[in-house]
From TrEMBL:
Belongs to the methyltransferase superfamily. METTL23 family. This is Methyltransferase-like 23. The keyword Transferase applies. GO terms for cellular component: cytoplasm; nucleus. Transmembrane segments: none annotated. Keywords: Methyltransferase, S-adenosyl-L-methionine, Transferase. It comes from Danio rerio. It holds the Pfam family Methyltransf_16. GO terms for biological process: epigenetic regulation of gene expression; methylation. GO terms for molecular function: histone H3R17 methyltransferase activity.
Amino acid sequence: MSELSQTLIVKTFTFEGSGNTRSLTVSVPEVLDPQYGMYVWPSAVVLSQYVWMAREELQNKMVLELGAGVSLPGVVSALCGAAVILSDSAELPLCLENCRRSCVLNNLSHVHVLGLTWGRASPELLSLPPLDLILGSDVFYEPEDFEDVLVTVSFILRRNPHAQFWTTYQERSADWSIEALLHKWDLKCINVPLETFEANKTHLAGSTLPGNHTVQMMIITNNRI
Ligand SMILES: C[S@@+](CC[C@H](N)C(=O)[O-])C[C@H]1O[C@@H](n2cnc3c(N)ncnc32)[C@H](O)[C@@H]1O
């Protein structure tokens, strides 16, 4: 970890290769600011590990990250060969600025960053290109936003019926559930056990962030497929 200024900290994550595969080192900025999108969350490290383990199927795929903030999973996807669009709330310019900073730190000049507010049928949402994959780490943290997240996901999956939404969330409350909302928006979900992608660890990618937090991984798809 190195300090660039009083408020900007660069965090480094290294995803381990196996056999002949090289490891991948990613640097992302954290800014000392109260907004959630300025920090890497434990869920982001877990989703990035999933992306890293699936890297071969990501080659040349079109990927959108929602609520990207520091954008670790999106940046890992781009470094693994996907075409990536990073997004965060159109009303949070500092978070969008942080997405851009992550791209600069990783020499990703071809990655687009756009304002995409969950639940809103904005011109940016309507003009998205065809997508293969949506990523979202720790976007289910504020229950009042759950439906807006799923409205956006459902809209994209109706336009891209074979796309998937890969998402991780941190368990913060026992009564957390999106089951009824999945049904309402014609979506289905499978849980992916962390041990299947070597993420059931307190240390991941050289980081202690996962710690003892309970993070879950889900794949959400269109219910009609
Ligand atoms: C808990 S943070 C997670 C950030 C990042 N994905 C991670 O896991 O490190 C939630 C993110 O959702 C973004 N966000 C909050 N409300 C939003 C909204 N209504 N539309 C789009 N993004 C939003 C925040 O700016 C923030 O980047």
